[in-house]
Design goal:
Domain Major facilitator superfamily (MFS) profile: 22-431
CATH architecture: Up-down Bundle
Distance between the termini: 38 Å
Largest sheet: none
Strand content: under 5%
Mean pLDDT: 89
Membrane topology: Multi-pass membrane protein
Number of domains: 1
CATH topology: Growth Hormone, Chain: A
Subcellular location: Membrane
Protein name: Putative nitrate transporter NarT
Low-confidence stretches: none
GO cellular component, one term: membrane
């Protein structure tokens, strides 16, 4: 049985339908999770000085921040299939806010690392966002819906680079906090907002267009939980899932890595910032680092939208071809950025690189909903976990003192370029291609009918 009454278009200013409420609440919840997840990154210069952290310890913090998310994403995809995205998001936001607020009690490297690892669990929010929009939107626009909701959520990674230094400065300059108390209060505030959003998600959304999973199962419109056993393992047996796992590690994993290191990278490798005092340097580095994440406001949407266009013209294989193009270009752009030593050249290179990173993410999740519809949560979770597995792997390059960070970025760029060729493993049967073509044509026809109806009513 398949979810019915999916939306055939995205009407951004409509908050009355369950589809659009889910769309807006899911991207906003993911935005806040991303904001809290990487809120400490632009303040690491203060934390590093206060706790006397070495480069290796900073590297372990980078790895720790994304490591537990691998497990959390695998689990949360299964949980969405069981209890629905509404309850899954509510619990994740409320429970995930605790370590975000709790990191303010860290007093040394060990306690800081423990909280940093625990905060990473809220990164599983991405899977719920993609799951919720996937079951709310029809095949003709699901790639765009997935890409936009995730992209606007990822925007939190850019906004936090800009806003957290400003919030930190407010606590110091306006409220008179010390630097030590300032970063702690900033993180507490981020956690509190996450908890409140979790409560709002429970009351403002529903699992599917026709209602919540519990009610749909009672009405016989969804399989019972016991009938869904084995779906996770079916997803695990599909080699295409693991190809996308690695590919997503090569795009979202790289984005997570850049979010973690960008501010410190600018501060340590560009002379422009060394002439400023600490607070001013942190604000400026955060502003420039934030440019990378701010591209999410449209770049990931482009990746999904072009995926939908390629899909309408060339079928599911067209979506995969588009994914190859953007992943390959991402790797080249990263290698170019890594060789920039002058800030005026580094920033444009960073923006171009960011464009391809986020389009690659959108392109990946324009393919994911078509891999295995019965195991959508499992597939979304596994592929999503690949992003964090990629970030964990990349983190080891920044932990060692044997190579500098520009060299580490160049190596990553070469690896990403190679990963593009894994798209050749993502193939679909003719039967699946035909089923997707029919679904897209049906959705397009329905969308056209809705427009005609709206136009006639307007007359």
């Amino acid at each position: 049985m398949e979810i019915q009454n999916k939306a055939t278009r995205i009407n951004l200013f409509n908050f009355s339908t369950p589809q659009m409420r889910a769309f807006h609440m899911s991207w906003f919840a993911f935005f806040l999770c991303f904001f809290a997840w990487f809120g400490i990154a632009p303040l690491m210069k203060v934390v590093r000085a206060e706790m006397h952290l070495t480069q290796e310890q900073v590297g372990w913090c980078i790895i720790g921040s994304v490591s537990i998310t691998v497990i959390a994403r695998l689990f949360i995809g299964w949980l969405c299939d069981q209890i629905g995205p509404r309850l899954a998001y509510t619990w994740l936001l409320v429970l995930g806010s605790l370590p975000v607020m709790g990191i303010g009690f860290a007093h040394d490297y060990t306690t800081f690392l423990i909280f940093r690892i625990a905060i990473g669990a809220i990164g599983a929010s991405f899977v719920i966002t993609q799951y919720h929009t996937s079951i709310m939107f029809a095949p003709n626009c699901v790639g765009t819906a997935n890409a936009t909701s995730a992209g606007w959520g990822n925007l939190g990674g850019g906004v936090t680079q800009i806003m957290m230094p400003l919030i930190f400065t407010m606590f110091i300059g306006v409220l008179g906090f010390s630097e030590s108390m300032g970063w702690r209060a900033s993180m507490f505030l981020a956690g509190l907002v996450c908890a409140l959003t979790g409560i709002a998600y429970y009351f403002l959304t529903q699992d599917a267009p026709e209602g919540n999973f519990k009610d749909l199962r009672a009405a016989g419109k969804l399989p019972e939980k016991k009938q869904q056993k084995g779906l996770f393992w079916n997803a695990c047996k599909d080699h295409r899932v693991w190809a996308l796992f690695v590919i997503y590690g090569a795009c979202f994993g790289i984005e997570l890595t850049i979010n973690n290191i960008a501010a410190l990278y600018f501060l340590d490798y560009f002379d422009y910032f060394k002439k400023m005092d600490t607070v001013e340097a942190i604000k400026m580095a955060g502003l420039f680092a934030g440019m990378f994440g701010l591209m999410n406001i449209f770049a990931r949407t482009l990746g999904g939208a072009f995926g939908d266009r390629f899909g309408q013209k060339w079928g599911l294989s067209g979506r995969v071809k588009w994914l190859f193009i953007v992943i390959f270009c991402e790797g080249i752009a990263l290698m170019v950025f890594s060789q920039m030593s002058v800030l005026a050249m580094a920033l444009p290179a960073l923006i171009v690189f960011s464009l391809f990173v986020q389009m690659s993410e959108g392109a990946t999740y324009s393919v994911v909903p078509f891999i295995n519809k019965k195991s959508l949560g499992a597939v979304s979770g596994i592929v999503g976990a690949g992003g964090n597995a990629g970030a964990v792997s990349a983190g080891f390059l920044f932990k060692t003192q044997a190579i500098n960070w520009p060299t580490a970025l160049f190596i990553l760029g070469a690896i990403v370029t190679s990963c593009a060729f894994l798209t050749f493993l993502v193939r679909f049967t003719e039967e699946t291609e035909e089923e997707a073509r029919v679904a897209v044509d049906t959705a397009v026809t329905l969308k056209a009918g809705e427009k005609e109806l709206a136009a006639s009513m307007g007359q």
